[in-house]
Automatic annotation (TrEMBL):
Catalyzes the reduction of fatty acyl-CoA to fatty alcohols. One of its GO terms (cellular component) is peroxisome. The keyword Lipid biosynthesis applies. It catalyses: a long-chain fatty acyl-CoA + 2 NADPH + 2 H(+) = a long-chain primary fatty alcohol + 2 NADP(+) + CoA. Keywords: Lipid biosynthesis, Lipid metabolism, NADP, Oxidoreductase. Residues 3-263 form the Thioester reductase (TE) domain. This is Fatty acyl-CoA reductase. One of its GO terms (molecular function) is alcohol-forming long-chain fatty acyl-CoA reductase activity. GO terms for biological process: long-chain fatty-acyl-CoA metabolic process. It is an enzyme of class 1 (oxidoreductase).
Length: 424
């Protein structure tokens, strides 16, 4: 949503934005688009501007994205920029599903991009966690996997049950990665390296993404209630009071508008400069050890202080999150499970809350989120920002006011405060 709004705001000369949409929860693609464009961030756009966004029925895993011949012909003639911003973002999915949704879909988008009459830029939205198996500073370059992306796609499609059974007993199948999500993103980057050599391609790697920072609606996060945003929601409501990790470690994160800006800037950069025959351009969107190194303990403190300043309508307990490790964390979760037992029978008998808000579910959600986000994030020692800094410095002063993604400009207390207002 944020990317579509950013594209509409970028240039009045933009003629069409084709969004590949499939039916979901009984809503037709056009209905989903209408609901999307009714969001607050599109209120300042006139109806004729929003009409530039066109929903096309498709399926990203299918050949030609499952598009009709008429739409496919129209896209090939008129589209010059392809932005692949979709994919599976859940960490606990099977390897088959992760490869299908994050690698196969990338292959389909590449195939479409190559068929365009006038390709100016192909941009892939990856993640800073894509190389969590790399020790030391992660550079803005592609780290090659041992297995080829096409080999993994073939395994996922032809032997789905075998590949999922093996990954449970063979950690080498995901090459030392923390989970299937990170590995699938690394594979997707390798696929772009193989398939887009000599073509205008770029990869954006954001870290943990929070709300808009410099925007008419600061803190806007849409309907995001999952992942680390869901974890913050639990903490703000007092249902979760424990964070795992090294208090002194850097908390790699960024505002949503920085991600949008990076995609737009990189699209212009690769579209106006001769493409590299070696590899696509890559930028990290994040802070790091040297630039605005906010610590985990600082983020937890900001979270607690802003939660008190912006109270929720209801609480499980008063919000007071702490960093706990080892036995302290284990005892905390044991106590939370024991406490959840007291609510188990009443929640089953009386409709106190929906299933996804019941005590056991909240405790388990917090425990899993602690593993998925804090432990995985702790694997990253540092991120190189050389390319990111280069691109932001090369912006025209007027463009820099609107499209900068320089992490040194971010006040993380302000970012957390505005994000909380939307999360709760």
């Amino acid at each position: 949503m944020g990317l579509i709004e950013g594209l509409l705001s970028a240039s009045p000369d933009l003629q069409r934005i084709y969004v590949v949409v499939r039916e979901k929860k009984g809503l037709a693609p056009q209905e989903r688009l209408v609901r999307l464009l009714s969001s607050e961030i599109f209120n300042h756009h006139a109806a004729d501007v929003k009409a530039k966004v066109v929903a096309v029925v498709g399926e990203l895993t299918a050949e030609n994205l499952g598009l009709s011949e008429e739409i496919l012909r129209e896209i090939r003639e008129n589209v010059s920029v392809v932005i692949h911003n979709a994919g599976l973002i859940k960490f606990n999915r099977s390897l088959r599903e992760a490869v299908t949704m994050n690698v196969l879909t990338t292959l389909r988008c590449i195939e479409l991009a190559k068929s365009l009459r006038n390709l100016s830029a192909f941009i892939f939205s990856s993640t800073a966690l894509a190389n969590s198996n790399i020790s030391g500073r992660i550079k803005e370059e592609i780290y090659k996997t041992k297995r080829s992306p096409r080999e993994m796609i073939k395994l996922a499609l032809e032997t789905p049950s075998t590949i999922d059974k093996e990954v449970k007993i063979r950690s080498d199948l995901i090459e030392g990665q923390q989970n299937t999500y990170c590995y699938s993103k690394q594979l997707a980057e390798n696929l772009i390296l193989e398939e887009m050599a000599g073509l205008p391609a770029g990869i954006v790697r954001p870290s943990l993404v929070y709300g808009f920072y410099k925007h008419e609606i600061p803190g806007w996060m849409g309907s995001s209630q999952s992942g680390h945003c869901g974890l913050i929601r639990i903490m703000v409501k007092g249902a979760g009071r424990s964070m795992y990790g090294d208090p002194k470690s850097v908390y790699f994160s960024c505002p949503c508008d920085h991600v949008v800006n990076a995609i737009l800037v990189l699209a212009v950069a690769v579209g106006t400069h001769p493409p590299s025959a070696k590899a696509p351009e890559i930028v990290h969107v994040s802070n790091n050890v040297e630039v605005n190194p906010v610590r985990t303990k600082d983020m937890v403190r900001y979270l607690n202080e802003e939660a008190w300043k912006n109270p929720c309508d209801s609480y499980a307990f008063l919000p007071r999150c702490k960093i706990r490790n080892g036995l302290r964390a284990d005892f905390y979760f044991l106590a939370m499970y024991v406490m959840a037992l007291f609510f188990f029978i009443p929640e089953r008998i009386f409709p106190i809350s929906p299933p996804w808000m019941r005590s056991f579910h909240l405790v388990e959600l917090q425990r899993k989120a602690r593993i998925y986000f804090t432990e995985i994030s702790s694997c990253i020692t540092d991120l190189s920002l050389e390319n990111a800094i280069k691109y932001t410095k090369n912006l025209h002063p007027e463009d820099a006011q609107k499209y900068s993604f320089d992490p040194s400009d971010v006040d993380y207390r302000k970012l957390i405060a505005s994000s909380i207002s939307w999360i709760i």
